[in-house]
Amino acid sequence: MGSLFRSEEMALCQLFLQSEAAYACVSELGELGLVQFRDLNPDVNAFQRKFVNEVRRCDEMERKLRYLEKEIKKDGIPMLDTGESPEAPQPREMIDLEATFEKLENELREVNQNAEALKRNFLELTELKHILRKTQVFFDESVPTVYQSSVPRSSNKYRRLLQMADNQNEDEQAQLLGEEAVRASQPGQNLKLGFVAGVILRERLPAFERMLWRACRGNVFLRQAMIETPLEDPTNGDQVHKSVFIIFFQGDQLKTRVKKICEGFRATLYPCPEAPADRREMAMGVMTRIEDLNTVLGQTQDHRHRVLVAAAKNLKNWFVKVRKIKAIYHTLNLFNLDVTQKCLIAECWVPLLDIETIQLALRRGTERSGSSVPPILNRMQTFENPPTYNRTNKFTKAFQALIDAYGVASYREMNPAPYTIITFPFLFAVMFGDLGHGAIMALFGLWMIRKEKGLAAQKTDNEIWNIFFGGRYIIFLMGVFSMYTGMIYNDIFSKSLNIFGSHWQMSYNKSTVMENKYLQLSPKEDYEGSPYPFGMDPIWQVAGSNKIIFHNAYKMKISIIFGVIHMVFGVVMSWHNHTYFRNRISLIYEFIPQLMFLLLLFFYMVLLMFIKWIKFAATNEKPYSEACAPSILITFIDMVLFNTPKPAPSGCGVYMFWGQHFVQVLFVLLALGCIPIMLFAKPMLIMQARKLANEEVQPIAGASSDAETGGVSNGGPHGGGGPHEEEEEMSEIFIHQSIHTIEYVLGSVSHTASYLRLWALSLAHAQLAEVLWTMVLSIGLKQEGWFGGVILTCVFGFWAILTVGILVLMEGLSAFLHTLRLHWVEFQSKFYKGQGYAFQPFSFDAIIENGSAAVEE
């Protein structure tokens, strides 16, 4: 049936490659992406393999490329990505690549070190400039009126100002040194105050000030001023805020203590001359050096930028080349060397249909390497379970991912993905049915499909967006199917479309209709007799009292109908598995009883629904009028419990058709009879077959295990062998069969009820849409005049946000998860085991797409 309905047939092959041609051949296989290699050295340490040195060289090259990438991103330089994948370079080209990367890294590190040293020097000069400015203000504030006054020095006023300044200095000295020290000083001997100036981080200043006060016992005088502009940290480039401080003290002991405190708080001290003329001279020199440094820094940054721009043009291609080289050598480490050390031996899983393509790729690799010995690809016989490989394209990939999320299919097991392409969006649409909401979803999916090349090239890291984009075809189909079911429900944003005109007639006059809110239309008199051409009649939109009752009955029944059909289809899928694997016991004693149990009980209930719809109507006379229509649920309960039905009203029949009671009793007895068959038949037959096998091989010593396992095959024509395992104990077989039978019988009831979520979510979605229309949008529609237009615009925006956010996104996610559960549990549990393991070929595209250097265990 092809790989669409089953996984590809796989073959285990042995590959012989000449050592000089192995690299080129593996490179061609990596471009092809159809070979999964096995590790033939599982007990050998990764550091003891043949090509470990080459892998280490690739790791070192990749480290250098990551360093370049980090520097390029730091400068915001765009990296050229042509989307092309260059071929894997030859082994001799590794030396050129290593030399190129080494040169770039050394040059960039040297430039960075020089730039960091220049920035550190620039920071020190900038801090010194601020210190000279701020400390000049501190010194000028000491005696501003003495030295900067315009009073002549020979006048009496000038002498009085000097005396006042001396008194002020004596007061400050008294505060710093204490009154006793001032009195103890000899007349004419000046007490000289020392000082240190520096810069400290602004957030450390309060703690720094407290520590100075406590350690020096208040015998220091601290002045500080903030630096308004933030400074750049040369180490990491962050902007930091700092403050200038100056500390006055007296004595070497306090000087030592102050310097230690500054060192502890990582404050930077700078020399500051005492004389104003020296400070001005130093400030001028600092400004000159800062200007020179700015020039040198600019040139350094320009050189660094040029180096990075040149590297950015080739960085993506370099990454691809290095990753391909590393992947090739990592794969070669999985091979074995023959005795002569001249040939590499590999084992690999390959799709049976692609063996010729693989052989062509091996020939191309041999020709590229110049080897004269062709590679040899031999098919091997094995009892191992092959990997599962389902070919997908951009359309089927998302649906296959939904199936694989439940479990990878066993080898050659029926693949539910092709059927899920239809059933998944349909069941979603049954819950989400609305023409307007479905159109929004379909347009969003169509936009992603039309723009998929540009959107795929962006390669964003946003996981939510990647999920949406990966499922763009699912979203589009869910939207289209929702539009279809919305037309069936005749529901668009909770309103109906009257395209063909209602097939109900109004027999009341206008005044009666306007005054009475609880009028009813009689199906016998007011209904024309022919249904609405497509979907639900729009008259039900204005049926205030019984609209929900009618919709409930309709949607509840179609939920059960779709659910039973879906489950029956799942059981039929198991027939394909049993016939393909030639499992005659499971086909007769599992599939047939399971199908009969489901048809005799639940499909019969579906038939009763159709019989009720066909035979009973308001226009019919008794016993087939609407008053005589029995309840399907009560009928089914009475059938299963063998209850006698309650007497029908006068003129009505108890049963829907002749012989219904006999048929129901027969169906229930047959369904109950299927249970012991499912429970005991298969284990008993397996036990009997084992006894016969043991009796036949008993005379031959030592042949028991061969006879028991010799017939275990996955069918020769299907390729690959079946699982070569030890026989399962009979007790375990009985237990597993009991669990499987009980799960199926009870699950048939619970799974049928589980499909009622189709009705529940559809009802909730319709009611939420009606609430938003009634309580939000209708408020704006009732307003009149120009003011009403303004109100309607605002209300419409709010309604649109709620519609998209709640009804499309949240309700859509809820319906998606419920649909996923119906497929995983109710549908796939009937036939799908999902106990296989995925085919993971050696593919350069997969390695590069995942962004990893190589796929390692």
Brief description of this entry?
By secondary structure, the chain is an alpha+beta fold. 60% of the residues lie in helices and 7% in strands. The model is unreliable at 143-154, 157-162, 172-190, 700-725 and 852-857 (pLDDT under 50).
The percent range for helix content is 55-70%
**In DSSP terms, counting alpha (H) and pi (I) runs of 4 or more, how many helices?**
27
Terminal CA distance? 35 Å
- Rg (CA only): 43 Å
**What would you call the quaternary organization?**
single chain
Average per-residue pLDDT, rounded, comes to 85
Question: What characterizes the major β-sheet?
Answer: 5 strands, antiparallel
What fraction strand?
Answer: 5-15%
| Total strand segments | 11
Helix and strand composition category? alpha+beta
